[in-house]
Write the structure tokens for this entry.
Amino acid sequence: MRKILLATAATACLTLTACNPGGGGSGSKPSAAHPAGGQPSATAPTPVGTPGNGSATPSSDTGAGQASLALGVPSRTVGTKLVGILEITPTTVVYTKEGDGTTSRFGTFAVITTKDASLTANAADEEPAGANGTKGGWRWIAANGQSVAEGNGTAYKVLVTGYSGVGKIEPGTYQMRSEVFDLTPEQAKGGGTLVYTDATKSENRWTIPPTDSGPQVADVKKRLAS
């Protein structure tokens, strides 16, 4: 279903000038013609805990049959309520025990920044976790298969200034956002897999390195310490 939606939106985009990239922040501007990462197979996501109330023993997810992209590689997905097309690029990961004046409940925060770009003539937004009974949004899959919801533990208290974009992203623009997970030493060991589930219940996956990585590491650390 998602492939059909992506193809339909791309075709409609060819006749609409609003599809051309415009302003929306510093850095390179998104383009509908920019190559994206491979599309993961469409499978139902694994249930996860409620953000802000996650435990140290979340559900299991082996991730069988799902292709994972590298950190920094973009992937295209449909927007919430099947409106618009988003290109999501995880850019940086930072591991820390404390951030934004908050201490990790389970031992380590994994802070991941993303660049979300709207590629079609309709404004688009990410699918929120648990919206309309779906299991959308972000989660972390540990090396041992445990699944952790974004914002679990005390992660929901951490705000990364400058990476806190919210709301619909207008056509041709992008926002910098961040996802924060509160992990036990075992869940953080060896890195993990970042998973985003869209409105069609299809998954996008990225392999996250076990150490601080990406072009914004220094900036993210500075903002977390302020």
